[in-house]
Specification:
Blueprint (H helix, E strand, L loop, with lengths): L2 E2 L2 H4 L9 E3 L7 E3 L2 E5 L2 E5 L2 E2 L10 E8 L5 E5 L17 E9 L10 E3 L28 H28 L5 E4 L5 E6 L5 E5 L18 E4 L4 E6 L6 E9 L7 E15 L7 E13 L4 E9 L3 E11 L5 E13 L6
Parallel strand pairs: 15-21
Antiparallel strand pairs: 1-4, 2-3, 3-6, 4-5, 7-8, 7-9, 9-10, 11-12, 12-13, 14-16, 16-19, 17-18, 17-19, 17-20, 20-21
Length: 343
């Protein structure tokens, strides 16, 4: 369920938050006020903005519902155009529903008398504001009582206090101290500090395959996904290419866009991929500018093993901003050729 943030109660902005109204010069767009919602303990801030152009039906009329999803984006849900009784469309799930806009085929501009408020379902509207006159299929039992709102206020206050304490702990455990030195040979090194205060050195242009310490609470937002760590392969000869999939999955729905470098390494093998250049690379295929988001990454590579026996496919994923290792994996491929004379 999506709830309202009680800080707007304290600021006496409750009657204006997420309010939908006509533009100063009415047209086929509406204006939505800013506001804050909480979804699964995540605070989502919505910025004041105008909607997209709302489309009028070709005949009759229809109802358009404006909502906000869990990403803080506007969602537009159109009903069925009808010359008879209008019906509200099926509302999308996990959304906070703002209003219904009634449009007819002759509508050329949207005014306040065409906007029906839905915020009162979640106690966002004042009693003076116009309420929805259509049956929305949402029971009034979902409304919050004064006691519910008081509990929400206590929760949000505690949430702010805990967030502040967490930020302080992060600064104490991971001090933002880093020094850069240049050797006589011109190599650049970074001096950083462990949690216990001891320093360690790291090449500024190197990838951190083995982080020098771990507090035991670290986790990777992105990880390699594979079915097994050992694979048996039989091919006709050493000239055959074998298709292998590399998959990176996001394990945190709050992941932001991350720019990464991906290494696909395999001993005694040629690695081919048609989507990244150079297409053919020996023993190591590097993708230096890979943007990861919550959709993750999936790509097929083709490997030509130069000899039979055991080959190790190593996967490494690095954060380009810090050169720190995000995740790594090793998969063993036991290769046999049907033509035994080929080495």
């Amino acid at each position: 369920m999506i709830l309202n943030s009680d800080k707007y109660f304290r600021s006496k902005k409750i009657f204006d938050m997420f309010k939908v109204s006509q533009l100063d010069v009415p047209d086929m767009m509406v204006h939505i006020n800013s506001g804050t919602i909480i979804y699964n303990n995540q605070v989502i801030n919505f910025s004041e903005q105008d909607s997209e152009i709302l489309i009028a039906p070709k005949i009759g009329a229809w109802l358009v519902v404006l909502s906000i999803n869990t990403k803080g984006e506007l969602v537009y849900t159109y009903g069925v155009q009808s010359t008879e009784e209008k019906s509200i469309p099926k509302l999308p799930e996990d959304c906070f529903h703002l209003c219904i806009v009634e449009l007819s085929a002759s509508t050329t501009m949207i005014t306040n008398d065409m906007i029906y408020d839905l915020r009162n379902v979640f106690n966002y509207s004042s009693t003076q504001e116009k309420t929805c006159t259509y049956k929305c299929g949402l029971a009034t039992d979902y409304s919050f009582t004064s006691e519910d709102r008081q509990q929400l206020k206590e929760f949000y206050d505690k949430y702010e206090e805990l967030s502040a304490e967490i930020d302080k702990l992060k600064l104490r455990l991971n001090p933002q101290q880093e020094y850069t030195v240049i050797t006589d040979g011109g190599l650049e090194y970074n001096i950083r500090f462990n949690n216990d205060g001891t320093p360690y050195f790291k090449r500024a242009d190197s990838y951190d395959d083995n982080p020098p310490y771990s507090d035991g609470n670290e986790h990777s937002d992105y990880k390699f996904v594979y079915n097994t760590s050992t694979v048996n392969l039989v091919t006709e000869s050493c000239e055959d290419f074998v298709q292998i999939a590399v998959k990176v999955k996001s394990f945190d729905n709050l992941n932001d866009l991350m720019n990464c470098t991906l290494f696909v390494r395999c001993n005694n093998a040629t690695i081919y991929n048609s989507n990244y250049q150079p297409h053919y690379q020996e023993e190591e295929f590097k993708i230096a500018n890979l943007d990861l988001d919550r959709a993750g990454f999936y790509e097929k590579f083709s490997l030509k093993f130069h000899n039979h026996g055991n080959h190790v496919l190593s996967l490494y994923l690095y954060d380009n901003a810090t050169h720190a290792l995000i995740d790594k994996a090793n998969i063993s491929y036991i290769v046999n050729f049907q033509n035994e004379n080929v080495e």
